[in-house]
Amino acid sequence: MNMKKAIAVFCATAMVVTGSSIPKTTWAENTTLPFDLKAPTNAALNWLEGGDSPTTMECVYCMDDSMCKWLKKWGDEATKEEALAELNALGFTDITFSAQIDWAIDDPVNGWHYTKYWDTEGQDEDYNYRISDWDALGILIYGETTNSELILRSVGDIDDNSNEIWFGNDYNPGIKSQLKDGQYDIIPLEEGGHTITLFKQGETPKRTVYARVRWSIRLYDMEGNISYEHSDWSKPAAYGAAGEKWEPYTKATLKAPVISNLKMTDETSNYFPVISFTLTVPDDLKKGATEVEARGGSISLITEARADGDEWVEIQGDWTLSSGDMSYSLQMLAENMESKGKSLSKDTKIEVRAYYYCDQYTDSGEWIEPFNSDYSNILTINGDTPTPPAPSTPEVKEGMTEDEVLAVISEIESEEDPSGTKFGYLYAQEKKSAKKAITLTWTKPENASHFIVYGAKCGTSKFVPLAENLTDTTFTQKKLKKGKYYKFIVAAYDQDSKLLGASKVVHVATKGNKKAGNYKAIKTSVENGAVTLSLQGESSIALDAKGVPEVKKSKVKEHRIIQYESSDEAVAVANADGTITAKGTGTCTVLVYGQNGIYQKITVTVTQ
User: How distant is the alpha carbon of residue 218 from its chain centre?
Assistant: First the structure.
């Protein structure tokens, strides 16, 4: 797999048009598409109250079911060929999707900033961009009912005459030229100078910001020509003086999920079977989910399964609202059965149900205690459950070339760690998580020349390289989806580009959903980080390790249990349950680490 191609696949950024001229826009009514290109059905807007920047707002918008289902099919490796065949039948070889967000202040009729350049993704005939920093084009979208983006971000120091974001340049208009007197307030910067804000904390808004959204589709035909299709604009969202008030959900008003078409798929995750069912998201829930997310909350789908009438077990898989097929691994169910001396087989009767978990805020920013909706209807599979095969863990080895490592890592479709990786080699971990970005950090071993960071969405998504030839020991992946889990592997290479060692998989959630949290610390039963064992006396100790969430009342969705690693197993070993057992006299270190790389170091001394 070509490394640069893999990086492009993960980032999914809009490609630059090549050729002698920018193609003219072809409007949607002249082209047949494999889905209905309708305007976003709902949009909502919220000010972040100084978070990110004084002006930053979040715009959340909904996707029509037809487009949502097809985009989900296009983005899933298991169904990509089917979607491509549908596209080819219409005379196209490729397609890209993005959103465009226009804005206005106080005037939702004539105050918009759309120009003809938006129809060609902001470029003129000579490929010069003709848009300002506040004109939001080329926004990555997913096959999910709700998508979101931060808009109207910082303009910087307006006292700095070289500030092109504010003053513009020969090609790009500055924000100053797009604003009228009275549409903003000037405030001081801590480091000196001034910037602007649209609202002031603690004050009743005196102006209204509006946003409207449309889809932008780029199509490539059989001759290599490019055309653009655009949906109509959504109904404007408003925040401020004329903004609509939102009544938060209650258990009485949030209806139970409606699910159907339960089936066993041909896919596996961690070598366990994967099931799917269809989720129907009604229009009133689409609007409600948009309003909830705009205020920093979320509505998630939680799914449970049981085998042969036994207890219900939460299973892992899709949990963001998305009309169409939702996929889930049966790993947690199978492991629950194994703990009781049973096994998942082709004769197992499997039942599935789901509920919504609602975590929301009021218009004034007050957090509301989360609650669950009622359960959905129960779906059943009677038998025909494939028996999980014996696992075969991919392995990376010291001395592998970059291409050899990529060949192994890119085939991992689960949450597992590749064999041959060690946590204590790089100590790769989360440094910082934001709504749209994750920063990793790690240590630099002796002889390490450079690093490569690989990543993917958590679940069955395959790893791809995100950055290569890194010499720093930190890396930030941006343009991520809020409230989502992502997984990463860091690999260290020598000056000949041969592998020195690789990290365990690091699972980190972006902020924005209390059902998707991270650990800030690991606690154990060992005080002061040290323990003494004896070969003749007390030869073992149970660590009783637990992860401490970064935010109180948040939930860390378990992608990997807390794990243990001994620096010298001839002195002491730690099993999967966290019990340290003495093996020989001496001193060693046991690392106790969570899925996001947060760890506790325990010094173990073993006497005779």
Answer: 24
- Residue 58 tokens, joined: 């979040």
Look at residue 528 in the predicted model and tell me its pLDDT: 86
Cβ count near 435 (within 10 Å): 20
Distances (CA, A) of 538 to 352, 532, 566, 590, 607: 46, 9, 19, 17, 10
Distance between CA atoms of residues 120 and 31, nearest Å? 17
Number of helices (H), then strands (E), belonging to the chain: the values are 9, 35
Q: What is the pTM of this model?
A: 0.64
3-state secondary structure 275-316: EEEEEECCHHHHHHHHHHHHCCCEEEEEEEEEECCCCCEECC
Same domain, 403 and 377: no
Beta strands 572-574; 579-582: pairing state: antiparallel
Q: Which helix (H) or strand (E) holds 267?
A: strand 258-269
| CB neighbours of residue 293 within 10 Å | 27
Domain count for the chain, please give it: 4
Instruction: Count how many residues are written for the chain.
Output: 608
Same domain, 366 and 399: no
Please, are residues 538 and 569 in contact by the beta-carbon 8 Å criterion?
no
Could you read off the pLDDT of 280-325 as tens digits, one per residue? 999 999 999 999 988 888 899 999 999 999 999 999 888 888 888 8
Among 240, 270, 288, where does a domain finish?
A: 240
Q: Going by DSSP bridges, is the β-strand pair 136-139/92-105 parallel, antiparallel, or unpaired?
A: antiparallel
How confident is the model over 214-233, as pLDDT tens digits? 999 999 988 888 889 999 99
Question: What 3-state DSSP class applies to 589?
Answer: strand
